[in-house]
């Protein structure tokens, strides 16, 4: 028997619920729905969803409080859905342990890509610490984790050590947005907090070395006000 991934959709808007159900069932996911925070709480603790899609604006509570309580005991992937366009909310959700976010309105392919990414990260056990090995390949971009080198169309991009660390960190979490603060803490340590400038300078150099057109990147994307996301591997 086929085992389907179970997705819990927490959303109070019936129309959007139906959209999720239609799209996800058509893509072979098992879908369960919760329309309030209270329902979500009981389903999360009794139904073992593989991914939770969590609307932040619920009738009985703020979705972020659900995220907080889940993170006290579980690393199950949570993708936050928000109508809010404020970057502050996205960053807050990511800092509280959300795996990713999508902003309404969003397309089907974006939704499915976020879910695939979240499931892949769970399977790889990336919530535990772990240094990636092997290679990351996406189009002409290759990250060789064993040699600590990045190649573009077969040519060594000549990244500095810090540039390599940034790219390999993004590659380890490919498809997922990494916040500026998270990257800075991982590369330079906690004392560099609140200084995005050094990261921006490094990213400009990385793009000059790996992108055909740094102004229209095809590998590393900027999520304005939030952070960076590298393309998913092939
Ligand atoms: Ca809502």
Reported CATH architecture of the largest domain: 3-Layer(aba) Sandwich
Order the strands across the largest sheet as they lie in space.
2-1-3-4-5
Terminal Cα separation, in Å? 28 Å
Number of strands: 12
Cofactors, ions and other ligands in the entry = calcium ion
Q: Main beta sheet, described?
A: 5 strands, parallel
Please compute the radius of gyration using only Cα atoms.
Answer: 18 Å
Uncertain ranges: none
CATH level 3 topology of the largest domain: Rossmann fold
Instruction: Specify the structural class.
Output: alpha/beta
Number of helices: 8
Q: Which term fits the overall shape? A: globular
CATH superfamily of the largest domain: Response regulator
Report the average pLDDT across residues: 90
Order of helices and strands: EHEHEHEHEHEEEEHEHHEE
Proportion of residues in extended strands: 15-25%
Quick structural gist:
With 234 residues, the chain is of the alpha/beta class. It is built from eight helices and twelve strands.
């Amino acid at each position: 028997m086929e085992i389907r991934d179970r997705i819990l959709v927490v959303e109070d808007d019936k129309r959007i619920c139906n959209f999720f159900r239609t799209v996800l069932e058509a893509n072979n996911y098992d879908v369960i729905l919760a329309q309030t925070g209270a329902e979500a709480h009981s389903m999360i603790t009794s139904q073992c969803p593989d991914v939770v899609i969590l609307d932040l604006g619920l009738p009985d509570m703020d979705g972020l409080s659900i995220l907080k309580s889940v993170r006290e005991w579980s690393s199950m992937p949570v993708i936050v859905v928000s109508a809010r366009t404020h970057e502050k909310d996205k960053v807050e959700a990511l800092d509280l342990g959300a795996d990713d976010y999508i902003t309404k309105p969003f397309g089907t392919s974006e939704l499915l890509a976020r879910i695939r990414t979240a499931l892949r990260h769970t399977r790889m056990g990336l919530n535990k610490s772990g240094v990636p090995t092997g290679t990351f390949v996406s189009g002409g971009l290759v990250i060789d984790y064993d040699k600590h080198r990045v190649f573009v169309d077969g040519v060594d991009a000549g990244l500095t050590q810090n540039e390599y660390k940034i790219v390999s960190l993004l590659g380890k979490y490919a498809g997922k947005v990494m916040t500026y603060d998270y990257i800075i803490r991982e590369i330079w340590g906690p004392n560099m907090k609140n200084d995005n400038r050094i990261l921006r300078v490094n990213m400009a150099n990385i793009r000059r070395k790996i992108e055909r057109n740094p102004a229209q990147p095809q590998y590393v994307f900027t999520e304005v006000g939030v952070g960076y996301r590298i393309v998913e591997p092939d």
